[in-house]
Specification:
The protein is α/β, with parallel strands linked by helices. The chain contains 13 helices and 9 strands. InterPro entries: AAA+_ATPase, ATPase_dyneun-rel_AAA, CbbQ/NirQ/NorQ/GpvN, P-loop_NTPase.
Length: about 290
């Protein structure tokens, strides 16, 4: 681990947070698909550059963001993007409150403003699902200025030194739009692929230490076949999701692998042919 990462970790972990903020610190446990990705993402965070995670659904992008939060002991605020996302969802909104017997207008900070002021992690999930006209408000937050003029109050906010931005995209999915070049150019981008077989095995053995070895082997074999079919375009990416593999393995401990694969993987696919393909592949490994 690079010295600058260790030094930054020690400094950030030295901060104390009230209970409601500490509850927002993510759970670690991300397993990297290669020897460099984890350390490279941490390096980008330490030099205070926004991080963009690119990869198929279920490849571990959110778990990676949560693990950064856990590594530095920083609360994380998550924004889930959609076409309905607007500036108020990001920045905050005005509301009417009673104060000392009077009715006054107050401003409730949104996740962007809160993370900037408090030095927390801001995680923007599926950023390419948002309408392009919504996101330019973040340009000054994401570049060297690290500041924001609140459009609702006029307040000028300069980011806390520990403020960290991580965004994630699933490229080429229905409902997504290409990221604006001016926005994309403000990030350091990392590809987050599916785990290889050895990493998947280490993950399952860590998550389910008491599971029979035969079950782990069976689920890994099914997973490898599903990844091959997804790469060839015969299955949707979500069929090869790490998240689905974990869910199926946990379920298989109680009801057996065939029904577990059906419920945790196959039934989430829209296409009937793909659902049948998943079950056919699983049947070749289930004895």
């Amino acid at each position: 681990m690079l010295a600058i990462i260790e030094e930054e970790r020690k400094e950030r972990n030295g901060r104390d947070y009230p209970a409601e903020e500490a509850a927002l610190i993510g759970q670690g446990g991300y397993v990297a698909p290669d020897e460099h990705l984890w350390e490279d993402v941490l390096t980008a965070v330490v030099i205070r550059r926004p991080v963009l995670l690119k990869g198929p659904a279920g490849s571990g992008k959110t778990k990676l963001a949560e693990s950064v939060s856990a590594f530095f002991g920083q609360p994380m605020h998550q924004v889930n993007c959609s076409v309905d996302l607007d500036a108020e969802s990001l920045i905050g909104f005005k509301t009417i409150i009673r104060q000392d017997g009077d009715t006054v207008i107050d401003f409730v900070d949104g996740p962007v403003v809160t993370a900037m002021k408090e030095g927390h992690v801001l995680y923007i999930d599926e950023i390419n699902m948002a309408k392009p006209e919504t996101l330019p408000i973040l340009h000054s937050v994401l570049d060297y200025r690290r500041m924001l003029t609140n459009p609702f109050t006029g307040e000028v906010i300069h980011a806390h030194p520990d403020f960290t931005v991580i965004a994630a995209i699933n490229e080429g999915y229905v409902g997504t739009v290409p990221m604006n070049e001016a926005l994309k150019n403000r990030f350091i981008a990392f590809q987050v692929p599916y785990l290889g077989q050895e990493q998947s095995k280490a993950l399952l053995e860590r998550e389910f230490p008491d599971a029979p070895r035969t079950l782990i082997t069976t689920m890994l074999s099914i997973s490898e076949d599903l990844k091959d079919q997804a790469k060839s375009g015969l299955l949707a990416d979500e069929a090869a999701s790490i998240r689905s593999l974990i869910d199926a393995t946990e379920l298989a401990l109680h009801i057996g692998p065939e029904r577990a694969v059906r419920y945790a993987i196959a039934e989430k696919l829209e296409d009937a042919g793909e659902r049948q393909l998943v079950m056919d592949l699983a049947a070749t490994w289930i004895r």
